[in-house]
Amino acid sequence: MIPLQGWNDETLQLCRDIANSVLHQIQTRSIPIDLATPPGANPQATASHWPRITIVTPSFNQGQYIEKTIRSILDQGYPNLEYIIMDGGSTDQTVEVIRKYDAHIDHWVSAPDDGQSDAINKGLNLATGEIFNWINSDDWLEPGALFRVAQTWRENRGAAGWVGACQRVDPEGYQLNVVYPNSLGRSNLGQNWNGRQIYQPACFIDTALAKRFGVDVGLHYCMDQDLYFQMLEHAPFVSGQGIWASALIHPDAKTTADRDKLHREVIKLQHKRGFNEGAEVRESFCFQGGPPGFVIPDDIKNRLKGQLDPGLMEDMHVKGLRIAVISNFLPRHDVSAANHRLLSILHLLQQGGAEIEYYYFFATEQDKRYARDLGLPCHKLPASGEAAARIIGGTRPDVLWQSNLWTTQFLGLQLQTLLEVRKTAPQTSIIVDTMDFHSRKFMRRHLLSKQAEDLQTAREFLALERKTYPLADRILTVSEQEREAILTEIPDSAPVSVVPNIHSPVINITPMHDRRNIVFLGNYSVNHNADAARHFVSKILPHIVRRRSDIRLHLVGQDAQTALQDLRAPAVKLVGYVPDLAATMSRYRAFVCPMTYGSGLKGKIGMAASLGIPIITTSIGAEGFGFTDGVECFITDDHEEFALKTLQVYDDRITWYNFSLQGVLAVAERFSPRAISSTLKTLFENR
To answer: Is the dihedral of CA 379, 680, 503, 434 positive or negative?
Structure first.
């Protein structure tokens, strides 16, 4: 059962209307088509609740396909639909089919015209809806599509277009692939158009803006692109959820039969609209045997300028500041993202002039190496909060920084230390670097596992966090979502600041064609990583290998070979720990993060983005990054959609290079050492 708490009335109404529409289609499949009421009519959905949508079907001698198109539109059960058919004077059974639905079509005509573009223009001139699209007579809408269009429009009324996914189907009904909207910026569409960013049947546009430009009747193949280019100069396109339409790929379709003519027309259009570099790449590839190319979109190119400079801020105002850091272990930066973050922060503070002493409770066999990498004075503490506090308090630091609070036992030890430092060194400011809101993470796990022990751990963490956070001078966490959750659950907490993970963006990215397979990265002794790997192998990977048996999942990271032995299979390779993570990751074509619970920023996502590896993730995995589905990466919680989006990234070079660049750009702007230097400067100025 899906919990409905927090859903607004519009979302609930959308779910009801889609369900009623689908149910009606199921119930009416055996009912004669000449009904007195429109097929799919939904009595519970009122016209006033939904925006008016105008759909035009241009057709000519497509009688064998058009009935399915008509039914798919009328069967939507959408209450505020305007449907127009512009037939070019067909001589086959098209008119006979149209007449069967005459009572349910707002306007139709069958008379000679000047081709598809002319038919679309005539329908557009008649349109009275806020939203417009044309559905060709060999394409069709998927159930509930118009309700999803309307909901996306309602959430993004200032957009020029609202785009869903479109599946491509062969004449036998086999799904060839699904095109999920991505990289919808005008520059990318102009320079790199290949039909895998937008698929026209699933692209609904603003009627008034479309009427301003109209469809160029001189274009026979790329009239949609030309219209989109002009509209995108005024407002963006946004993507919506789900598959909205299907396109039949058959030998008689002009975009299939006349590929050379199509490319010639696109090249001419690209030059006309100023996308000369993309036109030259297409000319070389399609007609001169050149390699497939990718033109970096202008918006990405302009934002990247200057962002990849690794220089640090010099005015952090921490020179001479004495900081005592207390943690569980020495920073094991090659084991977890949390330790990589901590080590990066300490190095930034050290370069800013801070005097740092590092204290830790537990030793490992690798301590000599970790101490060398840390490069700071470090001291092992006795496993007693009181004793640790006496040692640290005796040094009278300006700041005590507590970190890596991953277990209730260690959080309790740190709480004891905090209380003692308050007594012995009251002048010391205390920063509790919680990173994640731990009780939230275990509560999310409990909601999936239903295990009493997870609920108990969540409650124990929350009790300790409620005691600890109000006693500190400052709480640090890694994302705004974590900050809001802490303040909601612990309103008397000390002020909470966000210091995210730190990653250095890579400029020289291994090309797509030199990469193979997909990868997930994690420390698999940690439950949420091991559970994510099992979730992917059982729920998502079968959808991938059924379509592409050559693709393998590689599980990289600590304890993969011991904790995940049950996942050994032909399509799965347990790689385990690797000493040079960046070099290893650069071999893979796609990064998957199928996490089903957790909290905070996922360091694995940040690392993949920094290395330019396109990402497919769940909403939990993407949490805190500010990523948008189809912009920096693909985001979905649906098993089959996750697989299909992975395949799109894996096979389509335009999607691949856009996500690769957008990931690097996001890291440079939000998570690079330079960006975090600014954050730390603000933190210590307000200490």
So the answer is: positive
Alpha-carbon distance values, 681 to 49, 435, 497 (Å): 50, 18, 12
| Contact (CB, 8 A) for 90 and 188 | no
Q: Are strands 355-360 and 203-206 parallel, antiparallel or unpaired?
A: unpaired
Query: How does pLDDT run across 357-398, given as a tens digit for each residue?
Result: 999 999 999 999 999 999 999 999 998 888 888 898 888 999
Residue type, 270: Q
d(CA 295, CA 653): 11
What pLDDT digit, counting tens, does each position of 91-108 carry?
A: 999 999 999 999 999 999
- Single-letter amino acid code for the residue at 207: T
The three-class DSSP label of residue 470 is helix
pLDDT digits (tens, 9 = 90+) for 208-246: 999 999 999 999 999 999 999 999 999 999 999 999 999
Q: Identify the H or E element spanning 175.
A: strand 175-179
Beta strand 615-617 pairing with 634-635: parallel
Q: What angle do CA 525, 385, 391 make, to 5 degrees?
A: 115
| DSSP category for residue 234 | T
Q: Give how far Cα 534 sits from Cα of 38, 470, 537, 563, 573, Å.
A: 47, 38, 5, 11, 13
Sequence-distant contacts of 481-487: CB under 8 A, at least 24 apart: 481/623, 481/624, 482/434, 482/436, 482/437, 482/440, 482/599, 482/600, 482/624, 485/437, 485/440, 485/599, 486/434, 486/437
Q: Are 89 and 113 in contact (CB under 8 A)?
A: yes
Q: Which pair of structure tokens corresponds to residue 486?
A: 């802490």
Strands 161-169 and 175-179: antiparallel
State residue 354 phi and psi, 5-degree precision: -75, 150
Contact of 246 with 167, CB cutoff 8 Å: yes
DSSP-derived letter for residue 365 is T
Cα–Cα distance between 240 and 162 in angstroms, integer?
7
Q: How many CA atoms lie within 13 A of 447 on its CB side?
A: 12
Helices (H), 246-330: 254-257, 259-272, 276-287, 298-304
pTM of the model: 0.87
Packing angle of the helix pair 367-374, 337-351 (nearest 10 deg)? 40
CA distance 661 to 346: 28
C-alpha to C-alpha distance for 434 and 475, rounded to whole angstroms:
7
Q: Are 439 and 461 in contact (CB under 8 A)?
A: yes
Cα–Cα distance for residue pair 506/611, rounded to 1 Å: 5
Are 605 and 617 contacting, i.e. CB atoms less than 8 angstroms apart?
Answer: yes
